[in-house]
Amino acid sequence: MTTEVRVPTLGESVTEATVATWFKKPGDAVAVDEMLCELETDKVTVEVPSPVAGTLNEIVAAEGDTVGVDALLANIAEGSTANATPAAPAPKAAPASSGGSVDVMVPTLGESVTEATVSTWFKKVGDSVAQDEMLCELETDKVSVEVPAPAAGTITEILAPEGSTVDAGGKLAVMSAGAGAAAPAPTPDAPQPTVAKTGADVEDAPSAKKAMAEAGISRDQVTGTGRDGRAMKEDVASAIAAAAAPPAPTAATPRAPVAADDASREERVKMTRLRQTIARRLKDSQNTAAMLTTYNEVDMGAVMELRNEYKDLFLKKHGVKLGFMSFFTKACVHALREVPEVNAEIDGTDIVYKNFVHMGIAAGTPTGLVVPVIRDADAMGFADIEKAIAEKGARARDGKLSMAEMQGGTFTISNGGVYGSLMSSPILNPPQSGILGMHKIQDRPMAIKGQVVIRPMMYLALSYDHRIVDGKGAVTFLVRIKEALEDPRRLLMDL
């Protein structure tokens, strides 16, 4: 028997979506409610689960296709899925009274993310847990992912200890379903996760231990980058590659010698995956783009007066505070329409112009800089922009942003002024071609109509990719933002 997989209801006023990712391919066995594909609309990302257990026979709508509500996506031949291995979600929990075994799986990590590091286990073997109680936290290149318990029961085995690298769809632990279920005592034949111990009593990833044994290298030849200095599989690969590589050029500057007294007062902490990714992407941006920065300044008096006049009424009607970011977002949208190359990107020998604005808003968090994206900001009003900024800012600080919420941006705004920065040169967020740096509003004496007056001034900085944006376009862009902010009525009249 064949079952059709169709596009679900996408939401009010949403009539079509784009097939973003297929998690399965024809011939793959699937379980009930296992995620088959992900659809992307102009507002949300929608996951499509399998309606039955069986085998995926045919994919009708390929990745990149645009589909309407109730359109046919695929066909599934119903049947046994005993050999199916779910790719992302944890299987449905057995009834509490059954005492069955439930696997805890690695959830979907996001587009193009295939692995994560187990950073923290909140539970240990033998602990009883409630359904949806947090079991552990995974760390990817971008975000931290919490893994909830798929059912109430007891943890019987942890397969991926802290510091180990796990693949998307991999197994983290095994639970015995049922409230108060006792953890079975380990038997001699039961496989137990093995870990290597360093002199500092740090547990290495099992995959790293195996790789070291196969390569015949010792632990002291490997520099661990995992949690607390744990050796990961990729660290072993790096050590092997370093041993085979020719000596590094002597031009590299080694770390200066440190006095013994000073060394005892230092603290060495491994970079998190997020910080390593930030470092790599920023350096890649410098190495790839022909980056240049141009500056201007804007008198913020008109915006401040308008904000003070309407902020109470705005809050009462829309339930969100009126800030400066919505003015800058609207001003950038206005300027990007006139200088579209700042909203474009380079793809090989092509320039891809975007007829929409997905605005990235850089946000500092305790773990590093992230850039949540406000999609279709060019179609939003002040209130919608402020609400989106507030909601995504809170999710960023809590580490709850998904990968999808940080992808697809076409232009970025970075507000260093909230930290007191008076002037800076922001670095591009590739593959974008422009980023606007906002700075501190500071009273300065200005010459206006032959008189020296004190005005609230802000320096603006536009960093841009000179391969695609010329100096004239960059200067024009900043001038248009300056004009729009110094006379906000221009935004209403589209001037």
Automatic annotation (TrEMBL):
Residues 203-240 form the Peripheral subunit-binding (PSBD) domain. Keywords: Acyltransferase, Lipoyl, Transferase, Tricarboxylic acid cycle. Residues 180-203, 244-267 are annotated as: Disordered. Its cofactor is (R)-lipoate. One of its GO terms (molecular function) is dihydrolipoyllysine-residue succinyltransferase activity. Residues 2-77, 101-176 form the Lipoyl-binding domain. It catalyses: N(6)-[(R)-dihydrolipoyl]-L-lysyl-[protein] + succinyl-CoA = N(6)-[(R)-S(8)-succinyldihydrolipoyl]-L-lysyl-[protein] + CoA. E2 component of the 2-oxoglutarate dehydrogenase (OGDH) complex which catalyzes the second step in the conversion of 2-oxoglutarate to succinyl-CoA and CO(2). This is Dihydrolipoyllysine-residue succinyltransferase component of 2-oxoglutarate dehydrogenase complex. The gene is sucB.
